[in-house]
Specification:
Helix content is 46%, strand content 12%. The protein has 270 residues and is α/β, with parallel strands linked by helices. Strands 2, 3, 4, 8 and 9 form a 5-stranded parallel β-sheet that branches. Strands 1-6 form a two-stranded antiparallel ribbon. It has a two-stranded parallel sheet with strand order 5-7.
């Protein structure tokens, strides 16, 4: 009987040891290698953001699969269809001499916007960045060097985002919350990394050809394009390098409001 008791005790001890080992394995945090491996399993297929515009004030087609990816990683592309909200956003890789006029119009009309800037813009137009912050606009991250994100390694991508964020914080005590992929190019891998760093990817549901300084649209054509494509929840992408945009900004805001829409900050996104 004594031998049986001893054998039972040994079996119990073995079972307890295995249970403790199993619990430890299950609850231990992932190592850095495991995290990298998880990231590497995500698709790096380059996606170029595109939209199928409507000119009847209905929400455009953003592409169901692409929109699903943006939503999966807590990004922004278009607000809900119940509220007549418009979110103004501008991309700025460099200063062409028109941003001050745009800021003047926004201030006069009491409208807030988001400006996505690069490191070059921060280094060469810091007075305008300061003004954006002082006047209550959002300054977003457009990366250091404006490179296509899927072409970058994990570490390169983190550097592109965090170095700009750090530079802005050191200069103004301002921390970026939103980012826009250069050229509108991303992959599931880059969306995952962006989200893990605490940035919201902000795409758009309207844009038009306003970026070519050598071939600017007329004020009439630009206004017609913008107003005819207004829709609920619109994230409007404009370029502050556009002379035409700077000339029509005040009237554009008035016309947006005449159509019954409200201009809201991305902080109010819904």
């Amino acid at each position: 009987m004594k031998n049986i008791n001893n054998a039972s005790k040994i079996i119990i001890m073995i079972c307890l040891t295995l249970s403790i080992f199993t619990i430890t394995v299950i609850t231990s945090p992932k190592s850095a290698e495991e995290t990298v491996a998880t990231t590497s399993t995500l698709s790096n297929k380059k996606i170029g953001w595109g939209i199928k515009r409507n000119d009847n004030h209905n929400q455009p087609d953003l592409g169901a699969e692409n929109k699903k990816l943006i939503d999966k990683y807590n990004g922004i592309a278009m607000g809900n269809n119940e509220n007549k909200d418009i979110y103004l956003t501008f991309d700025l890789g460099y200063e062409a001499g028109y941003t001050a006029n745009i800021l003047d119009a926004l201030k006069e009309k009491n409208a807030k916007a988001t400006f996505f800037i690069t490191a070059h813009y921060l280094n060469t137009a810091s007075d305008l960045v300061q003004r954006m912050i002082d006047e209550g606009h959002i300054v977003g991250n457009h990366t250091v060097n404006h490179k296509s994100m899927p072409d970058l390694s994990d570490e390169e991508l983190k550097t592109e985002l965090m170095k700009l964020n750090q530079a802005l914080y050191e200069k103004y005590g301002y921390e970026m919350k939103y980012m826009r992929p250069p050229k509108g190019e991303f992959s599931e891998r880059t969306l995952s990394i962006t989200d893990s760093l605490g940035f919201k990817t902000a795409m758009w549901s309207f844009a038009y050809v306003d970026w070519n300084e050598d071939s600017q649209p007329s004020k009439e054509d630009a206004m017609n394009k913008i107003i005819s494509n207004l829709h609920n929840g619109e994230v409007m992408l404009l370029h502050a390098t556009s002379k035409t945009n700077s000339e029509i900004m005040g009237e554009m805001i008035d016309n947006i409001r005449k159509e019954g829409y409200e201009i809201k900050s991305l902080e109010e996104f819904r």
